[in-house]
Structures are given as structure tokens and as C-alpha cells.
Specification:
This protein has about 425 residues and is of the alpha/beta class. About 45% of the residues lie in helices and about 10% in strands. The protein has twelve helices and seven strands.
Length: about 425
């Protein structure tokens, strides 16, 4: 049976875990439901039940045992550490799933389905399942190297210990529907993978930013390999392409709004008027406005409707400012998302073709919203639901306020 020695820096990424027998075929990942944003410094800082489970896994023979709390960087660290040890062939995933971020379901989706071209975990239930900082090669090796033993919901240390024990048996052993044994190291080649930290806060990334982020990651990889400084000059061209894309999108929106405006401009008839047939005189028909004027007017409608959405969202923000959410996690994240979206709206406005006077009016309203954010919290704290203060259930008032904007500005088509 092949076994290999990990490199000297193994495990390469720090985290809340314990190191056991590096030649063991199993690692244990415990889903952590303590407050998000308050990562424990080490295993000693864990709740007593979680610490006991992690230590039991190591005592029974796991190579690594630690916690998972985030659906992006947390998973990336696990990938780096496990792909750096070919002896690890099984991951025992246990503990209670975290509501909202769903790191367990996201981890399971990664192993089963992988990632797409935008470094997004396919089929993940979480909001920001982005793996920007780990090499693609490490993800590929990780998925081929390990088999997932899915025990989400299980918190009994004795059951987890039985799973770990089953993994290092020489003959196939049945455990909860899995046939488990130690097949030896995945490969004789031993690598050490580390995070590049190209995106330090993936939880703040919007979907419309993904294309540009991926381009920047790929460009940085080329610069790191070749040292070619001439690549840096592509940034201006990329910005031009992005602006052209936005212009085309606004044009399509304007065309759709023009059709709606033409329908709405036709006077509605009362029921009794519909029964009478009246042939209007030709000379009374209003002339059709030139297309360019309609487009400008409809572009104004688009931006006005955007701001209508922010009126509703900011009303919710100011209410939440005096709520427990002000010291929580999702409210500051929602405020930061609103700031980012308003800044994007401001840039879109600059390249729009609407009249200068209307553009100035809309720009002032955007500035007013941005000014209001100065009075709102932007530094995330612990999730009030996770620490037991918020009893709303599975929903979240803070993210609900941003959903108002999506309903108005991002209609389904």
C-alpha cells in the first residue's frame, strides 16, 4: 500500500483544526454554527461539544480534524490542506448545517459537481460559493482524491469515531451505506498548495462582477508566470469593453421600455365608452415622437425606477438601524452591497444618453443615497440569529430589504 510523506510546510494553510496521523486516509470536517464573522482562533476556543468531537476524531486516527464555517475561503483552505496530503482519501463531513451560508451543502456540491468557468461551485445552496483564491489544479486534485462521507446533522463523537475507524481498514467495511477501506495514497507526487488571496472578501462580490474578477485573476496568473509588464496596459481596454457592454444593455432596456411606454400612452376607455364606436379625425392623431427622443426618455425611466427601489430599501435600512440587526452580520453586508450597486449605477448614468438636466437630477439623488450610508453600519458583527437573539426563522430582514430592489430593477424575463 502506497503512503507518502507530506512536505515540510504541511498543512500549508492555517485554520481551526488539529493535526493527527499524516498517513491516515481520513479527515473530519465539522460544520460550525457559532457566530459567523467570529471565527475561533483555535480548537481550544470552540464550544465544548465541538472541541470534544474534533479531539475524538484525532484520537481515533484522523489526519486532520477541524471546522468549516464559510462557503468560500473556508472551503478553499480545506482544499489546500487536503490536496497537499495524498494520503487523505476520505472526508467525514458532520455537524449541524449553518442556515443562510450552507457551507455543508456547498461543500457537498463542490465534490459532486465541481465549479464552472466563473469559479462558482455548481449547484451550491449558498449565496457566494466562489473559489477565487485556490489554484484550479488543486480543486481538480482534491475532487479526484477524496470520497465524501456525508454525515451532515450528525454531532455524536462516537459515530464520527466509527466513521474514521472504518476509513483505515484494509478490507472494505460497511458504514452507513458506504463501503470503506484504505486504498493508499492518491499519488506518489506530493505538492503544497496555498491560497493566493486575490479576493479577500468573496462574500461581498456581486454576480455582475464575476466576469471582470475572473479576467483579473487570469491576467495576474500570466503576469506571475511571465513577468510581462506590458499586460498591465490591458486594463484600459478592458474598461472600454465593460462600458460598451453596459451601453448595449441600457439600449436593450430602453427598447423594451419604449414598447411599454407606447402601450401606456394609449388612453384607457371607460366601459360605457367601449360600447360606442367613434372614428377619430385623422388630424387629431398626435405625431409619433422621433425614436432617439423616446430612447432618452425611457433611459430616464430606467434610472428613475432604480431609485424607486432604493427609496424602499433605505426606508428599511433606517428602520433596521435601530434594530438588533445594526450590530449583526447581514445588515452591514446589505449596506455594503447597496453602496457598491449605487456606485455602479452612478457609472452607468455617466455613459447614458439621457438629457443632461435629467442626468444631473438623478445623479444628485444617487449622491443623496450614498450620503445616507454614512449613517449606517458597514462593519459586520456576529449574526444575531446564530447567537440566539434573532427569532425570525430562516429569513433575514436585512437581505429582504435588498430583495425589494431586485424586484423592481431586475424583473424576470
Amino acid at each position: 500500500m502506497l503512503k507518502v510523506k507530506p512536505q515540510e510546510d504541511y498543512p500549508p494553510e492555517p485554520g481551526c483544526y488539529l493535526i493527527g496521523n499524516s498517513y491516515s486516509p481520513s479527515a473530519v470536517v465539522l460544520l460550525l454554527t457559532t457566530p459567523y464573522g467570529k471565527l475561533p482562533a483555535d480548537v481550544d476556543s470552540l464550544p465544548i461539544e465541538a472541541e470534544r468531537l474534533v479531539r475524538t476524531a484525532i484520537d481515533v486516527g484522523a489526519a486532520l480534524a477541524g471546522t468549516l464555517q464559510t462557503e468560500n475561503i473556508g472551503i478553499e483552505k480545506i482544499i489546500a490542506n487536503i490536496a497537499s496530503n495524498p494520503n487523505i482519501r476520505y472526508i467525514v463531513l458532520c455537524g449541524k448545517e449553518g442556515e443562510g451560508h450552507y457551507p455543508g451543502g456547498t461543500f457537498k456540491a463542490l465534490i459532486e459537481k465541481g465549479i464552472n468557468e466563473k469559479r462558482t461551485i455548481i449547484g451550491a445552496p449558498s449565496a457566494t460559493p466562489y473559489l477565487f483564491n485556490i489554484p484550479i489544479e488543486a480543486i481538480d486534485i482534491f475532487r479526484k482524491q477524496v470520497t465524501l462521507i456525508n454525515m451532515i446533522g450528525e454531532e455524536n463523537p462516537e459515530v464520527v469515531a466509527k466513521a474514521v475507524w472504518s476509513c483505515y481498514q484494509e478490507e472494505p467495511t460497511e458504514f452507513r451505506g458506504y463501503s470503506i477501506y484504505d486504498p493508499g495514497a492518491y499519488s506518489e507526487e506530493v505538492r503544497s498548495f496555498k491560497l493566493g488571496m486575490k479576493v479577500a472578501h468573496p462574500e461581498m462580490v456581486e454576480e455582475w462582477e464575476l466576469d471582470e474578477i475572473i479576467k483579473n485573476i487570469e491576467k495576474k496568473k500570466i503576469l506571475e508566470k511571465t513577468g510581462d509588464k506590458s499586460m498591465e496596459g490591458l486594463r484600459t481596454d478592458e474598461r472600454s469593453k465593460i462600458n460598451a457592454f453596459i451601453s448595449k444593455r441600457l439600449l436593450r432596456i430602453a427598447e423594451e421600455l419604449r414598447d411599454i411606454a407606447e402601450l401606456l400612452s394609449q388612453p384607457a376607455l371607460l366601459p360605457e365608452e367601449k360600447e360606442r364606436t367613434v372614428t377619430p379625425a385623422i388630424e387629431k392623431i398626435s405625431p409619433i415622437a422621433p425614436k432617439i427622443e423616446v430612447e432618452e426618455d425611457e433611459a430616464s425611466i430606467y434610472f428613475t425606477n432604480q431609485l424607486r427601489g432604493y427609496n424602499a430599501a433605505f426606508a428599511a435600512f433606517h428602520a433596521l438601524k435601530n434594530d438588533m440587526c445594526a450590530a449583526g452580520l447581514n445588515f452591514p453586508l446589505a449596506v455594503n452591497k447597496a453602496i457598491k450597486n449605487l456606485e455602479k449605477l452612478k457609472k452607468d448614468l455617466e455613459i447614458s444618453s439621457i438629457p443632461a438636466e435629467k442626468k444631473k437630477e438623478i445623479d444628485l439623488r444617487i449622491d443623496d443615497f450614498l450620503k445616507q450610508t454614512e449613517e449606517l453600519p458597514t462593519e459586520p458583527g456576529p449574526c444575531q440569529k446564530t447567537i440566539g437573539n434573532c427569532k425570525i426563522g430562516t429569513g433575514c430582514f436585512a437581505y429582504g430589504s435588498l430583495d425589494i430592489i431586485k424586484l423592481i430593477t431586475e424583473p424576470s424575463r
